[in-house]
C-alpha cells in the first residue's frame, strides 16, 4: 500500500502569535505576507509544516526564519479548519502563541522580513481568519492569567508596580484603581522589593520588584486576589 486512495490534499499551515510588552503597551508582532494570496498585507508569522516536521518543530522554524526569535515558549492555541479559510486551496492552520518581554528580544529581531510591533488597539486588518486567532488567543491568555503567573513572561526580571498594573490593564482592557491594586499586590507577599528605583517617570520614582516564584506556588490563592474580577473579564 503506497497511500490513501481518493483522499483530498490538505495543506498544514502554522501561524504564530507573538505578544510583547514594552513597559507601557501590550503589542503583537506582525509581518507583511510575502506571497499570494494577500501578498503585501499584514499577517501573523506564518508558514507551512514540512513532511518531516512535527507541528512544534514547524512553529519554531517559522518563527526563527521570519523574525530571528528563538528559544521562547510557544503554546498551541487551536486548529482552524474552515474549508474556505484560504481561497487558494484547502488549508488547515494550527496557531501558537508566545508571551515575551519586547526589550529582551528587540536586538534578536531579524530585519530581513521587516517584522513590526503594533499596539493591539491599533492593529491593522489581518488576512484570512487571523483576527479570530488574535481574539481567541487573548481570551486564552486572560483565562490563564487569572490562574497562573503567565503575564510575568511579558515583564523584565525586575519591574515596578505601575508597570505591572499597566500590563494587567492592557491584557484585560480595563482600568484598575491604582491605590487598591498596589495594596492588593503587596499584600500577596509574591513580590520581593529591590533597593533601586525607576525614576524615568517621576523624581520620586517607583521601587523595582521581582517575583518570588516559590512563594507564588505556596500562596496560590493570594495571587487571585489582585486580579480585577477575573470571572467577569475572561469571557
The general outline is elongated
- CATH class value of the largest domain: Alpha Beta
Beginning-to-end CA distance, first to last residue: 48 Å
Number of helices: 8
**Roughly what is the average pLDDT, rounded to an integer?**
87
Classify the fold: give the CATH topology of the largest domain. Nucleoside Triphosphate Pyrophosphohydrolase
- Which stretches of 5+ consecutive residues score pLDDT under 50? 230-235
- Indicate the proportion of strand residues: 25-35%
Count of the separate structural domains: 2
CATH superfamily of the largest domain: Nucleoside Triphosphate Pyrophosphohydrolase
Helix share, percent: 25-40%
In short:
By secondary structure, the protein is of the alpha+beta class. It has 8 helices and 10 strands.
Task: Write a concise keyword list for the protein shown above.
235 residues, Nucleoside Triphosphate Pyrophosphohydrolase, Arc Repressor Mutant, subunit A, 2 domains, seven-stranded mixed beta sheet, three-stranded antiparallel beta sheet, 10 strands, 26% strand, elongated
Amino acid at each position: 500500500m503506497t497511500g490513501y486512495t481518493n483522499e483530498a490534499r490538505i495543506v498544514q499551515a502554522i501561524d504564530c502569535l507573538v505578544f510583547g510588552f514594552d513597559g507601557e503597551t501590550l503589542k503583537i508582532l506582525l509581518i507583511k505576507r510575502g506571497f499570494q494570496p494577500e501578498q503585501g498585507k499584514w499577517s501573523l508569522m506564518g508558514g507551512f509544516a514540512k513532511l518531516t516536521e512535527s507541528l512544534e518543530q514547524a512553529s519554531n522554524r517559522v518563527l526563527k526564519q521570519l523574525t530571528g526569535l528563538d528559544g521562547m515558549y510557544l503554546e498551541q492555541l487551536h486548529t482552524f479548519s474552515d474549508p474556505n479559510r484560504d481561497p487558494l486551496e484547502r488549508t488547515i492552520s494550527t496557531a501558537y502563541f508566545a508571551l515575551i518581554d519586547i526589550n529582551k528580544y528587540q536586538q534578536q529581531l531579524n530585519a530581513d522580513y521587516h517584522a513590526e510591533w503594533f499596539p493591539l488597539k491599533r492593529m491593522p486588518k489581518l488576512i484570512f481568519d487571523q483576527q479570530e486567532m488574535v481574539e481567541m488567543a487573548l481570551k486564552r491568555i486572560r483565562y490563564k492569567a487569572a490562574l497562573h503567573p503567565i503575564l510575568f513572561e511579558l515583564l523584565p526580571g525586575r519591574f515596578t508596580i505601575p508597570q505591572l498594573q499597566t500590563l494587567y490593564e492592557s491584557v484585560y482592557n480595563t482600568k484598575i484603581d491604582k491605590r487598591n491594586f498596589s495594596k492588593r499586590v503587596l499584600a500577596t507577599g509574591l513580590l520581593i522589593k529591590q533597593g533601586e528605583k525607576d525614576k524615568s517617570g517621576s523624581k520620586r520614582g517607583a521601587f523595582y520588584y521581582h517575583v518570588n516564584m516559590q512563594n507564588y506556588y505556596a500562596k496560590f490563592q493570594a495571587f487571585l486576589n489582585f486580579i480585577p474580577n477575573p470571572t467577569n473579564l475572561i469571557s
